[in-house]
Amino acid sequence: MKLQYLTVIFILIIMPIIIVYSTYLDTQVSIIRQEASYDSSLYNSTYDAIKSFQINAINTTLYTPETRVNIITASANTFFNSLSTALKYQGNKSDVMKEYVPAVVFTMYDGYYIYSPFINTLTGVQDYPDNDQNPAHQNQDEVDDKYADDKVYNGLKPYVSYTVKYLVNRNIYYITYTMDNYISVDKFDSSNNYDHREGYLVSGIRKSGESYKYDNVTFNKSDSEALSEYLYLSDTEKGIYYYATIDGTKYYYEGNNTHSRNVNQCGENDKIFYINNSGTKTYQVQEYKNNKERFTLYYNRIFNNNSAYWYYAKAYEFTEWVRSNLSGLTISNIDKTNSSYLNYDFANVGNIFDGTIQYSNSNFNQHRKDVIRAVISTNLSTAIQGFRRFSNSNEQFLMPMISDDNWELLENNICVATFLQGLKFGNKTYNSYAVVPNNYNKEYVDENDIYLLTTNYEFAKVNNTAVNNSNLAKNLKYQPGVLKINIKTRRSSNGYYNPLSYYDTSGKLQPYLGDYTSIYGSSGTADVSTIDMYRYVERLSDVTKKQVYYTALARERESSYKFINDNADDVLKNEQ
Q1: 468 three-state secondary structure
Q2: pTM greater than 0.85
Q3: Helix, strand or coil for residue 336?
Q4: Are 201 and 311 in contact (CB under 8 A)?
Q5: pLDDT tens-digit series, residues 96-118
Q6: pLDDT tens per residue, range 454-477
Q7: Rounded to a whole number, what is the distance in angstroms from the first to the last CA of the chain?
Q8: Are 462 and 453 in contact (CB under 8 A)?
Q9: In this structure, are residues 201 and 318 in contact, taking their beta carbons and an 8 Å threshold?
Q10: Is the CB of residue 387 less than 8 Å from the CB of residue 397?
């Protein structure tokens, strides 16, 4: 065949194929880049939401259900603002962006919120023309103006707890699980008598008189600590203050910090205060002379803090009760009648409360994670599918397949999970999600978040093999173990400061610094990923290091906020 014929064939047949294929490749590359851009924008916006959550939580001293809702709402707004900006730069209109976000999920310690659209209903609400004269209805017009009937709003849906119903020997048990080994149990017997119990489940505690022993460490009622931190209130009110955390709130002593720890030596004007969310002092006990009994309760907890003892005492009693009442509990006892997890296939782990409960691979922990997945997935799937009526995109919204790695995050951490669906690019429709954990919060005391203070004025992880009995900071009035969130800097009217600080020999304020090995990792840090922190500490030969870790973990967990706890006064009275 002559060369000119081959040239004609190439130009008429081969060349168009090459052009078409090249165009196709360019289109696919563009689609991949666009998808990667959406992935990046979604993850970064979710990360911004987490940072908002962390900053607000760290600088919130008084933690309440209302405070939590405000922090979460602010975090959701941060996500939408960040995503709007990112998508606007990519050619999308920011004002219609919410039509492509079917849900934002906030997994909390004992349940979760879904932030999504809802139709407001004011059924039965009447207009009262005499609002100004009728105190019972004087805010009605304000409510009507803010929330119109049948209008679509974006907001938090009711809180959903990680609760499962069980049927055992004609008794009904509602068990609410959390991110760790804390549960609450509501029991109804065959005569409809009600009993409520709650607490930490800890296997291996031994009782002897009023003392409790765990892993060769004994906890006595007389054991005490006196915690302190640097606090900046104003230029004239700053320094080291002694405090105790009760039900998630820090209560500080205002008085003479140099006298002996005897309440009878207090000045009549000594007070107990906490920091409200405006950053100012609020007196829990106005003056010692006016309420000596109440003042004494707080004073003794501040200077003779034995909350670690109460953690093991309560955990022992509660664990004994659970094993006495629910020793044979399995997934066969789950009642799926009219439940949100009706079609969920729970894994058969055997007797749920057998073995060492606190181990990460225990029957309890496997079932706990399964419950969290069941409750989230079934409700979230319904919320995403129902999003179609709120969106003008005409897409069929479906819950994506969440990877096992991301489920591990959701089951074991306070997280933000965001979903973005329906955006068109090329010949594809975007459908993805992002999950980012919150490592600094005031609800969840993770067993991996305890740090040890050293004589070098550094904080180090427990699995730092260089930290031992010889270099633990024993000159403190408390066991040198601290929770990670207490290391973070805080905001003040004069900038930022570090609460974990000390005065050096020249009287200058200095912050504790992170140990290099612990922060950046090296051969001097033992690997706990293949076991868990409980097993790692059990294997330590250094009993002092064990005691420091167990005391700090117990103290922080016993002091943490629980939404089903009594108030601080009741907590103190119950521990006399």
Answers
A1: coil
A2: yes
A3: coil
A4: no
A5: 678 889 999 999 999 999 998 87
A6: 999 999 999 999 999 999 998 899
A7: 105
A8: no
A9: yes
A10: yes
